[in-house]
Design brief:
alpha+beta; 2 domains
Amino acid sequence: MRKFTKQQVDFICYQIGEWYVQWKNQLVDYDAKTHRLGTAKEALKERFCSLEEWETLEDEYDPNVNVSKKPWETEPDLLEFVDEHTGYYCFIKRHLELKHLCGYVALNKEHKLYGKDKEDSCFDKINVHKGLSYSGELGFWSTSNNYKKLYYVLGFDCGHAGDLVPYLYNCNPLIGGSYKDIEYVTNECQKLAKQLKDLE
């Protein structure tokens, strides 16, 4: 069964509200025990069937209409992988509220940068999306062993100026920027891992 889009529902509710205000005192004559429901029905049909706006509305379940989902509605909220060139653990995690992606690379305790703050001058030459925005321990559920493990990670996020942040976009689709998807963030994690490997 097909369902109306929100745009269609809003349109219908608005039109019915307008119609009701105009007709509520004219529908039934209680003294004469008569009604004008047939006339009202025809007027209502005319309002819906003759308006150009109605004809341009799309049914979201129409098989002839290509309704594509937004990437943040189909991508995973957590992705864990090992960078094949460096052996570093990488994690991509979706922000719980704003829904943009964040990328992290884990350092082992032997790495000379382990435990250092992202503001340390040793990270000045790190080139990753909008710069490092996190350093510290984070817990991730291991997809292979099904338990939570703490890692010391360096991370970046895709919620800066020029980034499309899904929550803000959903509130106002006119907000600009480009959405940084799983593929983009994966590449940035690999780029960060390579730089960290070079700094060992």
